[in-house]
């Protein structure tokens, strides 16, 4: 397993309180701009694979556009339905470098990332 | 049975009749009212003006109540004469009605001060529901309004107008606001609150005349200053209506003089309410009316005994966020004042003591203890051992203790006279669990409403299954009912979702309130708002309908279902070029291209060269049409053209929920107009315009809005309803729920049968919104953001 910080995209390519999907090393990652920070998770909702990047951001969570599952963007945990609270999506550490959003991921190619 | 004729269909008269009905039936009752409404709660008119209640919500006695009690009600008839010898009354409709017993409950009228030009158009009083309606019709954003009079009513009128968007100035003759209820310090605290709300107040200024030719253009003050205004409200006080009593030869001073048993100088004539003078006092508040009514009912029903000895006056200002309460005698002479003031909190409290007892109280900024003082005033309690706790109750460990401490005999509702004991009895014996049940059962809290929170506290403490009645709010993030919120956004001039959330919500918002607020702002400001796409559902960010696999469906606009070979060819080419997995004819005479990637949307739209069909949004989907007179041998109207024109007028606009329309050329109804949100049905010689139909999750036959002769009239009726729905429906409320909720009669009255001004207003705002709207698919060529459709490519290549 090889963790690496990857320079992904300029901060201003993700509008405030919206998300955007980006394909990194064969993995679809959703990046969200919360104003004071950026958060990154897998883009697929654990329910039916809906694109989380297209959801409405509420606080530091996102609501999936397909069936309104609510995902905590920091932990990746499902917040709603509460009965599914033990499920989660992968979430990734982020940082800003010279106006560029960087995401830390495992690029060895086979590791499913489940930072929680 | 004796004939009882009641002149006056207001709160006092009907409260008394309610009491009379509790005795053995001895009367056949006839009621005359010069207003055209059933008895309503006049005290609540300011809430109607401020949009907190609808006119229907303030009705006290419904028409059904009169019917049930076999009361012969004549509304819109003013009694103009009384013959005390022949014992008849004469109405302005020429009717002559005999009586055995006459009850005068004629109330009072607005006092018109000696100001020149009060007859000009644009000058209003604020006493009746009709006055309120007239004000509502006239008030609007950026109207300059002047209220003459800074008393209770004037200030409530001022706030109501301001909520409706007016810029308001109050001109008050005296040096203190509400000087009858407040002292100068209390007046200053209130003044500061009014200023905070953004209402200008001029004190110690007298109005000389209303300026303008026929219409009010402003006022001229006695000192020569000119103020501009197109709306002037006179709220300078009230005068008892005593003309009829004079004609009847009764003893009249300022009001109709009555004894402690509510008898006038004529044994067959009685009087109650604001028109009477009892022991030298004329009352202008609601509580005395109920007390007088009870006494009078006993006297009149042959149980003369209980006497009316006067009422402790109490007044509460009904402006949300401005708490003012005053009761008893607040004059300083000879009384011992005890005060507390905190200017930064805006709290001022003053009690006046006489002989160790409470004589009067003033509360500004915090009225939570008002019932404690009312209790002391009514009971005349000796306060010697409570001197240390006059202004604040002793600290208590239990928040509910306050209610628990009240004596069983203590009055909770001063207007109707309901004690704590009576409420507890209702809860235990009649299974009362909610405030509305309590109102129904005891009438408590149906007067001025100031005891509502106390009633609720009692229910919470005593009722086993107390249910808090909530007005439906959008969601927990923004705790306001939608109609209230619309008024707030309008008056506070808020234009962005985030701003609303930060000021009136939890600062965060969610997937429910954000789209609702987005809609509201777009509608209120006719498109001139700060559009925040992050607050919109994905469909409204990329103007296509998201599918289960994250791809999108594209439905171009095909107005009225009429297309051409060229359009069909382009659609076919697009379907091939982008390998569209499914091309489908929809249920609404359109074509759906399913399975398109977000990144391809702008190219697909460009290749189609057709506008958006809005199949993805809460907006106008389409107008389904039949071929009408064009080809059909049965057609009576050109429904295809009418439908296409309707679609053109409504397309590109947001609506509370999706809208599906129809236009048919004859009653055979081939395009199912009777189950559409708006349907035009061609008939011989004209159109029927129907609204509120549905054939989806619900099935509902549309109601008839209007029958008209020309296509243009039909389209205008549709436009009126369309804009009315946009402005008044809750978000995600379909027309069929909306029409059902309001009733088609109300919808008609406020659209096609509304006054010229109201109709022009609706059409004007629709035209404004329409002028700002544009085809959403134009964003394909000029995206709002570089990555709106375009996927992000990772900067740094990573080998997986």
Structural commentary:
The complex is a heterodimer of chains A (116) and B (800). By secondary structure, chain A is mainly β. Chain A has strands spanning 3-10, 19-24, 27-33, 38-42, 56-58, 61-63, 70-72, 78-80, 91-92, 94-97, 100-106. Chain A has one domain (3-104): 3-layer Sandwich (Rieske Iron-sulfur Protein). In chain A, strands 2-3-4-9 form a four-stranded antiparallel sheet, with no helix packed on it. In chain A, strands 5-6-7-8 form a four-stranded antiparallel sheet, with no helix packed on it. Chain B is α/β, with parallel strands linked by helices. Chain B has six domains: 2-110 and 240-300, 3-Layer(bba) Sandwich (FAD/NAD(P)-binding domain); 123-236, 3-Layer(bba) Sandwich (FAD/NAD(P)-binding domain), CATH 3.50.50.60; 323-390, FAD/NAD-linked reductase, C-terminal dimerisation domain (Enolase-like, domain 1, 2-Layer Sandwich); 401-430 and 440-463, BFD-like [2Fe-2S]-binding domain (Arc Repressor Mutant, subunit A, Orthogonal Bundle), CATH 1.10.10; 473-529, no CATH class; 618-774, Sulfite Reductase Hemoprotein, domain 1. Chain B starts with a strand and ends in a 28-residue tail after the last helix. The chains are: A mainly beta (116), B alpha/beta (800). The A-B interface holds A 4, 6-10, 13-18, 20-27, 31, 48-51, 54-59, 63, 65-66, 68, 100, 107, 109 and B 508-511, 514-515, 532-538, 541, 546, 548-550, 785-787, 791-796, 798-800.
């Amino acid at each position: 397993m090889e963790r690496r910080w990857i320079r992904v995209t300029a901060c201003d390519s993700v509008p405030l309180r919206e998300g955007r999907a980006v394909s990194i090393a064969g993995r679809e990652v959703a990046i969200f701009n919360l104003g004071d920070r950026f958060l990154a998770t897998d883009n697929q909702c654990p329910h039916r694979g809906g694109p989380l990047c297209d959801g409405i951001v509420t606080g530091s969570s996102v609501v999936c556009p397909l069936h309104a599952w609510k995902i905590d963007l920091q932990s990746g945990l499902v917040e709603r339905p509460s009965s599914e609270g033990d499920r989660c999506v992968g979430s990734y550490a982020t940082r800003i470098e010279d106006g560029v959003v960087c995401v830390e991921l495992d690029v060895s190619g086979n590791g499913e990332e489940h930072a929680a | 049975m004796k004939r009882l004729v009641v002149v006056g269909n207001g709160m006092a008269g009907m409260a008394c009749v309610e009491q009379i009905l509790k005795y053995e039936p001895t009367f056949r009752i006839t009621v005359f009212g010069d207003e055209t409404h059933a008895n309503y709660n006049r005290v609540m008119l300011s809430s109607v003006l401020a949009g907190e209640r609808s006119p229907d919500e303030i009705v006290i006695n419904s028409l059904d109540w009169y019917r049930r009690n076999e009361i012969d009600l004549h509304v819109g008839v003013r009694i103009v004469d009384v013959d005390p010898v022949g014992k008849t009354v004469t109405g302005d409709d020429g009717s002559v009605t005999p009586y055995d017993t006459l009850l005068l409950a004629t109330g009072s009228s607005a006092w018109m001060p000696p100001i020149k030009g009060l007859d000009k158009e644009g000058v209003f009083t604020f006493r009746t529901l009709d006055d309120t309606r007239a004000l509502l019709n006239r008030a609007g954003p950026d109207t300059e309004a002047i209220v003459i009079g800074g008393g209770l009513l004037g200030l409530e009128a001022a706030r109501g107008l301001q909520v409706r968007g007016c810029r308001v100035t109050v001109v008050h003759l005296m040096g203190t606001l509400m000087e009858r209820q407040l002292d100068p310090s209390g007046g200053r605290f209130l003044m500061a609150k009014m200023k905070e709300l953004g209402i200008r107040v001029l004190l110690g200024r007298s109005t000389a005349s209303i300026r303008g030719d026929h219409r009010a253009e402003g006022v001229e003050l006695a000192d020569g200053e000119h103020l501009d205004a197109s709306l002037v409200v006179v709220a300078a006080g009230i005068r008892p209506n005593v003309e009829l009593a004079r004609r009847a030869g009764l003893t009249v001073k300022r009001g109709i003089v009555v004894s402690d048993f509510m008898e006038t100088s004529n044994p067959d004539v009685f009087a109650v309410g604001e028109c009477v003078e009892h022991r030298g006092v004329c009352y202008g508040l609601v509580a005395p009316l109920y007390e007088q009514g009870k006494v009078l009912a006993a006297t009149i029903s042959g149980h003369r005994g209980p006497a009316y000895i006067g009422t402790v006056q109490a007044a509460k200002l009904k402006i949300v966020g401005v708490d003012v309460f005053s009761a008893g005698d607040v004059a300083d002479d000879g009384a011992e004042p005890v005060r507390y003031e905190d200017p930064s909190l805006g709290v001022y409290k003053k009690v006046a003591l006489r002989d160790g007892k409470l004589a009067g109280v003033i509360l500004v900024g915090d009225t939570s203890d008002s019932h404690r003082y009312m209790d002391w005033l009514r009971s005349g309690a000796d306060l010697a051992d409570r001197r240390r706790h006059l202004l604040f109750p002793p600290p208590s460990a239990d928040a509910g203790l306050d209610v628990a401490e009240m004596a069983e005999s203590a009055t909770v509702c001063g207007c109707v006279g309901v004690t704590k004991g009576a409420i507890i009895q209702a809860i235990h014996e009649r299974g009362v669990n909610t405030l509305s049940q309590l109102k129904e059962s005891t009438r408590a809290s149906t007067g001025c409403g100031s005891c509502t929170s106390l009633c609720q506290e009692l229910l919470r403490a005593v009722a086993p299954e107390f249910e808090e009645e909530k007005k439906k709010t959008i969601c927990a993030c923004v705790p306001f009912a939608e109609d209230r919120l619309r008024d707030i956004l309008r008056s506070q001039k808020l234009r962005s979702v985030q701003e609303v959330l930060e000021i009136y919500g939890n600062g965060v918002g969610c997937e429910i309130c954000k789209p609702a607020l987005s809609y509201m702002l777009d509608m209120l400001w006719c498109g001139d708002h700060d559009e925040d796409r992050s607050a919109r559902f994905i469909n409204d960010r990329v103007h296509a309908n998201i599918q289960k696999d994250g791809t999108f469906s594209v439905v171009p606009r095909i107005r009225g279902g009429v297309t051409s070979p060229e359009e069909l060819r382009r659609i076919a080419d697009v379907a091939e070029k982008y390998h569209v997995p499914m091309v489908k004819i929809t249920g609404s005479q359109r074509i759906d291209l399913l399975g398109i990637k977000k990144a391809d949307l702008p190219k697909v739209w460009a290749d189609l060269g057709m506008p958006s069909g809005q199949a993805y949004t809460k907006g106008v989907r389409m107008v389904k049409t039949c071929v009408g007179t064009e080809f059909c041998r049965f057609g009576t109207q050109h429904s295809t053209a009418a439908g296409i024109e309707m679609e053109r007028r409504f397309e590109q606009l947001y609506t509370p929920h999706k809208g599906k329309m129809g236009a048919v050329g004859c009653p055979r109804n081939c395009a199912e107009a009777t189950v559409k949100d708006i349907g035009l049905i061609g008939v011989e010689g004209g159109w029927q315009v129907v609204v509120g139909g549905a054939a989806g999750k619900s099935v509902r036959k549309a109601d008839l809005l209007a029958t008209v002769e020309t296509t243009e009239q039909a389209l205008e009726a549709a436009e009126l309803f369309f804009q009315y729905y946009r402005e008044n429906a809750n978000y995600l409320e379909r027309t069929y729920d909306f029409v059902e909720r309001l009733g088609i009669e109300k919808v008609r009255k406020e659209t096609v049968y509304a006054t010229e001004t109201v109709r022009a207003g609706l059409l004007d705002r629709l035209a404004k919104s329409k002028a700002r709207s544009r085809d959403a698919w134009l964003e394909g060529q000029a995206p709002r953001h570089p990555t709106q459709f375009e996927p992000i490519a990772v900067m740094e290549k990573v080998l997986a």
